[in-house]
Each structure stands twice: as structure tokens, then as C-alpha cells.
Specification:
- With 387 residues, the chain is of the alpha/beta class.
- It has two domains: 140 residues, Aspartate Aminotransferase, domain 1 (Alpha-Beta Complex), CATH 3.90.1150.10; 224 residues, Aspartate Aminotransferase, domain 2, CATH 3.40.640.10.
- 44% of the residues lie in helices and 14% in strands.
- The protein is built from 14 helices and 13 strands.
- The protein has a seven-stranded mixed sheet, with helices on both faces.
- Helix 9 links the parallel strand 6 and strand 7.
- Helix 5 packs parallel to helix 6.
- It is globular and about 60 Å long.
- The termini are far apart.
- The model has no long low-confidence stretch (mean pLDDT 96).
- The protein binds pyridoxal-5'-phosphate (PLP).
- The site of pyridoxal-5'-phosphate (PLP) has 13 residues, from helix 5.
């Protein structure tokens, strides 16, 4: 039996592998402290759940237009205008089954076999695999702690070739928590514009910024930026709706049209009643978003303060999302060995940085209670002392 080449080149998700090991240990009754979570630990706000339930009760259970219901696309256009200062028409917005799906649709619509896509590392682990699935080639640009894990215009320019079709910018970033400033983004757009390189701007962590860091949407920067950018966002992180599978993108009209066609022949519409929940999320009270952000900020501060006291561990202070990327290279172990030993001996689950293209690091999520964070960091400290 021979599988398609595209199906054989993918790397299985390391995050899921560690997660299932941790879960198996928990099932055996072992007290595991998990820093693996990629999702908020709170429930979806009640008014969002109520809207979805009411729509189910009302029989909103059929196919919808493939790119989403008109009211939701309008609400997303309004959100882009109000929050990000970008003018998109509803026809430029495609609602999909999560921001992951939106990213994949964007890559499929733009990349041809052989095209190169520039991805700054450490990166969200699905980007390179999406590019490979589309037949493209990921070109990884290593960023540095000195530059807060952000790609410089020089890094970008030196990775460009005549085959470069797209660059992916993820701010606030997973796994780094880095937030690009307006000036930094403007400099990257300037480089992209020299060769009309598309920009996939993944803004899923937009609502989670700290310490006065401000999220800036790439497409808001200029007409040039707008014309080159596909903006991805969604409901998973801001509204604790990971299981609902609801995300969206906005793009110049011809790209949106192409993505509409791709989606109509692959997945059709996102879940009908989840869309009603999404509508309530955007139109309803935003208090829960800010409360969650403040809670994350407390945990973030605690975590960076504690990690800063552990010898041979170094961190760049994250300004967004809910992750801390810690450099553990001084212990002489690669990230997988470090993570496996930490889990086996001290029952702490972290994600090895090799999953994100950086084997010197581990990722700790603070989307978990402060009590678990305290206990887990005590154990991590003990493990580090033992090495
Ligand atoms: C950077 C980034 N983009 C996109 C996603 C996917 O979000 P969704 O649940 O909306 O598919 C994630 C989820 O972890 C993420 O970290």
C-alpha cells in the first residue's frame, strides 16, 4: 500500500505526544503538573453558550452559506474596524473551523508546489506542515533571544529568494509570547512589498497582551500592507472557545473568493450554532476577556519571576499569549530529553522546544491555575538542581 507523498512527510504533533503521556500518568493516579495547555483553562462565557443553545433549540441546525452567516461576517467586519482600524467588507471575510483551518486555507490559496514560505522560528508547529501539505517549502528563519525572538528586516531579507511567496507573522506569538511593535511590523512590510510577498498575519492572541504591549494589525499599517496581508483571527483564545472550532480570516477580495471556493468544496460551512455563539461573543459583553487577561498576567509575572531565580535557566519576558519559552541549553540536554526526564522523574509536563524549531528551549503554558504553577515550578527547580 502506498500513501500519498504529502501524507508521509508530516511530523506527528509532539505536543500531543507529551500530552497523552501526561494524561496516561494522571490516569494511573500520578499527580502531574501540566504546563502543556494550549487553551484557556476557563469555560466559555455563559452568554455565548446561551446563544448557541438558543439557536439549537430554535432549529438552527442546517447548512449555512459556506463562508459563514451574513450577520457573523458583518460582526467580524465591524470588529476589524473597531479593534484594528481595518476596513473589510463582509465579502472579504471567511469564517472557518478554527484559526488553524483559516491559516491552512490561506496557505492553500496562495502557495504553489515549489513556492517558499518564510517562517520565523520558534514557530507555531503547524505552519511548516501546512506549507508542506500545500507542496511548498518552509524556509525557517532563526530568531534570537537578544531580539526578543523576533525576526528583523535583515533576517527576512536574507531568507528571501525569487521563489518566496509568503511570510508568516504571528504576533503575539506562540510559543515565544513576543509582540511586534508597529515600527517592527512596518519594517517587515517594507521588505515584503519589494517583491510582493504575501503576509499571513496570525493574530489569534490579539487580546492577550501585557505590560503595555500593544497589538498592531499588519493590514492596518498601509494600503500596501492591506493588499498583501491575509489576517487570521478567531474565537478560541479570546473567548475560551477552543472546542467550538470557529475562526476567520480577512483578505483582499480575489484571495477571499479563492478561499471561499476551497472551503465550499472541502469542509463547507463552520458549525451553524457555533457561528451563533461567535456572533454573541463579538456583540456581547467583553468583561470576561479582560478578566481572563488580568488573571493570565498575574500568572505570567509569577512564572517569569520564579524562572528568573532558577540557575542556568533563562527567559525572555513574554508580552503576549500565555506561554513562556525558557532556554534550558545550559543543562547539556536536548529539549526532548529534558522534557521526558522532567516528566518521568518530577511529574511535570512541558513541551520540548524542538516541536517549535528550537531544541534549546521548553515551552511552559500558564493557562493553568496558580497553585499548579507554583507546585510545578518547585519541582522544575528541584530537577534543574539535580542536573
Ligand atoms: C499561533 C496559533 N494560531 C492558530 C491556532 C489555532 O487556533 P484555533 O483553535 O482557532 O484553530 C493556535 C492554537 O494553538 C495558535 O497557537
Amino acid at each position: 500500500m502506498e500513501l500519498a507523498h504529502r501524507a508521509t512527510i508530516l511530523t506527528p504533533s509532539l505536543t500531543l505526544a507529551i500530552d497523552s503521556k501526561a494524561k496516561a500518568m494522571k490516569a494511573e493516579g500520578i499527580d502531574v503538573c501540566s504546563f502543556g495547555a494550549g487553551e484557556p483553562d476557563c469555560d466559555t462565557p455563559e452568554h455565548i453558550k446561551a446563544a448557541a443553545m438558543a439557536s439549537l433549540d430554535g432549529g438552527f441546525t442546517k447548512y449555512t452559506p459556506s463562508s459563514g452567516i451574513p450577520e457573523l461576517r458583518q460582526a467580524i467586519a465591524d470588529k476589524f474596524k473597531a479593534d484594528n482600524g481595518i476596513d473589510y467588507k463582509p465579502s472579504q471575510i471567511i469564517v472557518s473551523n478554527g484559526a488553524k483551518h483559516s491559516c491552512y486555507n490561506a496557505v492553500l490559496a496562495v502557495c504553489e508546489p515549489g513556492d517558499e514560505v518564510i517562517i520565523p522560528a520558534p514557530y507555531w508547529l503547524s505552519y511548516p506542515e501546512m506549507v508542506r501539505l500545500a507542496g511548498g517549502e518552509p524556509v525557517i528563519v532563526q530568531t534570537t533571544e537578544e531580539n526578543d525572538w523576533k525576526m528583523t528586516p535583515e533576517d527576512f531579507e536574507s531568507a528571501m529568494t525569487p521563489r518566496t511567496k509568503m511570510v508568516i507573522i504571528n504576533s503575539p506569538g506562540n510559543p515565544t509570547g513576543s509582540v511586534y511593535s508597529k515600527k517592527e511590523l512596518e519594517a517587515l512590510v517594507e521588505i515584503a512589498a519589494t517583491e510582493d510577498i504575501f503576509i499571513l498575519s496570525d493574530e489569534i492572541y490579539e487580546k492577550l497582551t501585557y505590560d503595555g504591549a500593544k497589538h498592531v494589525s499588519v493590514a492596518s499599517l498601509s494600503k500596501t500592507a492591506y493588499d498583501l496581508t491575509i489576517t487570521v483571527n478567531g474565537f478560541s483564545k479570546a473567548y475560551a472557545m477552543t472546542g467550538w472550532r470557529l475562526g476567520y480570516l480577512a483578505a483582499p477580495e480575489p484571495i477571499a473568493k479563492a478561499i471561499d471556493a476551497i472551503q465550499s468544496h472541502s469542509t463547507s460551512n463552520p458549525c451553524s450554532f457555533a457561528q451563533q455563539g461567535g456572533l454573541a461573543a463579538l456583540k456581547g459583553d467583553q468583561t470576561a476577556v479582560e478578566e481572563m487577561r488580568q488573571e493570565f498576567d498575574l500568572r505570567r509575572q509569577y512564572m517569569i519571576q520564579r524562572l528568573g531565580t532558577i540557575e542556568r535557566v533563562s527567559v525572555v519576558e513574554p508580552k503576549g499569549a500565555f506561554y513562556v519559552l525558557a532556554n534550558i541549553s545550559k543543562f547539556g540536554l536536548n529539549s526532548t530529553d529534558f522534557a521526558e526526564q522532567l516528566l518521568a522523574k518530577h511529574h511535570v509536563a512541558v513541551v520540548p522546544g524542538v516541536a517549535f524549531g528550537d531544541d534549546r528551549t521548553i515551552r511552559l503554558s500558564y493557562a493553568t491555575g496558580l497553585d499548579i504553577i507554583k507546585k510545578g515550578l518547585d519541582r522544575l527547580e528541584e530537577f534543574c538542581k539535580s542536573l
